[in-house]
Design a protein that fits this description.
The protein contains 8 helices and 6 strands. It is an alpha/beta fold and about 250 residues long. The protein has a 6-stranded parallel β-sheet, with helices on both faces. It starts with 14 loop residues before the first strand and ends with a helix. The protein binds farnesyl diphosphate. The site of farnesyl diphosphate (FPP) has 22 residues, from helix 1, helix 2, strand 2 and helix 3.
């Protein structure tokens, strides 16, 4: 039976986040430069977006470039930026056709102006789409995001727009880059590394984690469906007991 047919459509995670890892190692295995791996990673991005759409995931967040990635060799950074922009521009028609809304999260100040301008056009053209929100984390670091939230909340307190007693989880959520998104239900990391690498630290509080040895350029629709199936076979308790979950069904 097809993997997709085994998926329970009533228990699909709303928000899936992916750490796309292993492009460099994949290229090395083929005796090619690292950027060859990134170029082939674009196909896996397309597969993942299609697979997420096919099963009814509402939000997909991809870690494309971290704040730490600025320290990579200049040529690699330049290729990655160009690749991101060209891929998303090329995919714009497909995004519109499939009712996918594009957004980016991260520290936009560091992005080259041309990249930002090109991305903003695709963001504008897809802003009313509803089926799936595709969020690309670009120049993103979770701790930086949290620091930024602290600063903005503090400013509101100083300006008397907010009282300290009013600060709760909702207020913090609303000051993160991801304020429009629900918590992450499932986080996937490829390439066998078992780390979170400063990605969505607040948002994964109750997420299920799925690690696979597949290197990112080889990641296929079936790999995505396998991650969803594994997620569906786990019991999410949110701190409750199994018995409570069975009787209240409150998940
Ligand atoms: C990690 O592999 C991957 C990245 C840092 C870049 C991911 C970017 C893409 C797949 C390009 C296209 C993206 C979009 C959203 C269109 P690595 O270089 O860290 O691999 P390694 O750990 O094997 O060295």
């Amino acid at each position: 039976m097809d993997l997709i047919a085994q998926i329970d459509k009533t228990k699909v995670p709303h928000h899936v986040a992916v750490i796309m890892d292993g492009n460099g190692r994949w290229a090395k295995q083929q005796g090619k430069p690292r950027v060859y791996g990134h170029k082939n990673g674009v196909k896996a991005v397309r597969e993942t977006i299609n697979a997420a759409g096919n099963v009814g995931v509402k939000a997909l967040t991809l870690y494309a470039f971290s704040t730490e990635n600025w320290n990579r060799p200049k040529a690699e950074v330049k290729t990655l930026m160009t690749l991101l922009l060209s891929s998303l521009k090329n995919e714009a028609k497909e995004l519109i056709k499939n009712d996918i809304k594009l957004q980016i999260i991260g520290n936009q100040e560091n992005l080259p102006k041309s990249v930002l301008k090109g991305l903003k056009k695709v963001i504008e053209d897809t802003k009313n789409n509803k089926s799936l929100t595709l969020t690309i984390a670009l120049s993103y670091g979770s701790r930086e995001e949290i620091v930024n939230a602290f600063k903005n909340i503090s400013k509101k307190v100083v300006n008397k727009e907010l009282r300290v007693e009013e600060i709760d989880e909702n207020i913090i959520n609303n000051h993160l880059y991801t304020f429009t998104l629900p918590d992450v239900d499932l986080m996937i990391r490829t390439s066998g590394e078992k780390r979170i690498s400063n990605f969505l630290l607040w948002q994964i509080a109750y997420a299920e984690l799925h690690f696979t040895n597949v290197l990112w350029p080889d990641f296929s629709k079936n790999d995505f469906y396998n991650a969803i199936l594994e997620y569906q076979n786990r019991e999410r308790r949110f701190g409750k007991t199994s018995e409570q979950i069975e009787t209240t069904n409150e998940i």
